[in-house]
Amino acid sequence: MPEINLWAKDGYLSTPDGNSIYFWGFAKSAAGPAQLPGPNIIARQGETITVNLHNMLAEPVSIAFPGQQVTVEGQPVQPQYKNNRLLSFVNYAEPGGTVAYTFTPSHPGTYLYESGTNPYQQVPMGLYGGMVVRPADYNPDVPEYKTAYGAGTDTGFDREYLLITGEIDPDLHQAVENGKPYRVSKYVPRYWTLNGRCAPDTMLMDHVDYLPHQPYGAMIMGLPGEKILLRYIGAGIDNHPLHPHGAHTRVVAVDGRLLRNGNADLSYKRFTVLVGVGQTYDQIYQWDGLGYTPGNPIPTVLPNLRNMGVGDAGWTMWSGSPYLGVKGDIPVGVVSYNEMGEYYFMLHSHEELQITNWGEFPGGMMTMVAIYPSLAPDIGVIG
Amino acid sequence: MAIVARIFQAAAGFLSFPGANAIPFWGFTEALADKPQYPGPLIEATAGDQILIWLMRNYLEPIVEPISITFPGQENVLVRKIPWGPFIYEPVKPQYAAGKMISLTNYLDENRDILVEYSFIASRPGIYLYESGTNPEKQVQMGLYGIIVVRPVGYNIPGHPNYKTAYGADTNSGYDVEKVLVLGEIDTVMHNNVVPNVYYDMLDFKPDFWVVNGRSFPDTINEEQISSQPYDAAINCRVGQRVLLRIVNAGFQNHTFYLGDLVGRIVAEDGMPLKTQSLDATYEKTGTTLGSGQRIDIILTPATPGEYYLYDREYQHLVNNDQFPGGMMTKINVR
């Protein structure tokens, strides 16, 4: 039986504008850093899993697994009371204590896990993470069985990414750090995160050593025509309308439930998905291109390079060429971060205030979808 | 088909919230009943019934501005008015004064009119709001709203194919336990200004209490009682029973109603069943976001005994006076 250990700890988040923010998060080991979001939990449909929560914070902490039937010591989890007052939606661990949650996922899909104790504070503080349940027949080596919801469900994918939305109100975090009271009604987010990072940090690779508490990147990379599975999770307490520029996604499942009744396919295409709080969306993104190759020229005339505003900020993701896999000239003085003629499409919250870091654009809930001419097979693997 | 006739008045009253002083509000009341209600009186009907609502002048405590009722989702609502007419039914329409729209529908002017009568055929089963159509940015928030449940013919006849269904046979909407949950919010500053008729700028709207069926947790799980907040929100069922939650967002904010650890099947949205003869488009969710004025019917079947909390996943709404637990939260007891 797979066993996962999570330690609830504190730490400091880093934002691109140089702020360092106290937070609470789950760590993979007693000595490891608390991380935002918590470690990805990968489970398998029908396989019983135990999650041991070790609480190293100074107040009770718990984990709720929405959509799962969870037991603690053989009994279903239950709300907990202290002095007749609701303290926690589920069984919790006292400071220094441990609680073991056991469940057997009955459905494949994407799920949130989050604190069920003082959730108005502990969830925004960072005690949340994502869980992926593989279908019982999942086999990544056989394309037919590399699916989100099982063979024959039209949910096959080539690469997959988890994108967990969140918000940060620095005042809340500072009040908690200093043990000061915090009025929930004053909640005003100033940072908006994907996988715990604000843009442009979202576009960095996983596990970069200068973001020890934010190990997960949010850059989406794939090849033309590939099926890219985007798993959105709304972990904050605000809704966020996310879309990738220039392409639709096909929503195949919500809250870990396949959108299909018998033979009826209920999946649907969306340009923008309103990521509701506590909810999950499994989508397949496919960029097929428009057939642009040097042998099939674009039937428009691009403006003269001197008339194009390439890299107003001094840098660009553009390759200098409209053709995939081709790099061309860019204006003198502009730095291109384009590696090999890949295409970049922004993916962001359409509440544009949220693509700032405390009001300064660019930042916040924004990343890129990058279509590469070639890409290593180990890119786009959730670990 | 029957006629469901109700006589309503609008009246001012007081609401009670945990840890707060009595908060003034406006609510609908059955005529001659002593207390206005929040939400308004529940109207129950069977598909095909004619619903007649008389909105009567309140001579004792008028709220001193025009009032009206709109019925979102109902077609062909007719109106007549005493004593100034129209005397024969005509379709409701927006009302203007000096070129300015002052009401989304025909209204009762308590200085002139004695009553205004709204009439329509409740042709489709489902769950519907009724709410003020006059100064709705103020009057709806002040409490002038309620719920209409329209049930399919035969819902109460054992052996009938529609027996205990929300939308009729073969719509995946069979249930054993039914509960209406109305979501809303209260800005106490606004309420305390509106009743003495002090101007309140709705751009300052900032709720401080969040309610299910007019109450904030833990009042939501107290029993039904004779007060201005008569409807409780607690749900009781046995293992394996199908619980039909009819959730209506009567507030101004969006709310994500979360089913705790339970998973529900959404069988209807905005009073429209998702299963038809040709397509079953019902789907399962652990929580769902309702925009203002939206309604949803969810069926859940708890498999293990115990307690589960159902709540707004926007956790900042689970407080009373900034203290957790409170707000838009209720409980289901599974025996």
TrEMBL record, chain A:
Pfam (any one): Cu-oxidase_3
Domain Plastocyanin-like: 35-136
Keyword annotations: Copper, Metal-binding, Oxidoreductase
Cited Gene3D superfamilies: Cupredoxins - blue copper proteins
Recorded GO MF terms: copper ion binding; oxidoreductase activity
Keyword Oxidoreductase: yes
Keyword Translocase recorded: no
InterPro entries noted in UniProt: Cu-oxidase-like_N, Cu-oxidase_fam, Cupredoxin
PANTHER family xrefs: FI03373P-RELATED, MULTI-COPPER OXIDASE
Protein name, per record: Putative multicopper oxidase
Species for this entry: Desulfoscipio gibsoniae DSM 7213
TrEMBL record, chain B:
Highest taxon in the source lineage: Bacteria
Record keywords, A-Z: Copper, Metal-binding, Oxidoreductase, Signal
Start and end residues of each Plastocyanin-like domain: 207-320
Pfam family, one: Cu-oxidase
One GO molecular-function entry: oxidoreductase activity
This protein's record includes keyword Oxidoreductase: yes
Signal peptide per UniProt: 1-22
SUPFAM superfamilies in the record: Cupredoxins
InterPro entries: Cu-oxidase_2nd, Cu-oxidase_fam, Cupredoxin
Source organism: Desulfoscipio gibsoniae DSM 7213
Name the UniProt record assigns to this protein: Putative multicopper oxidase
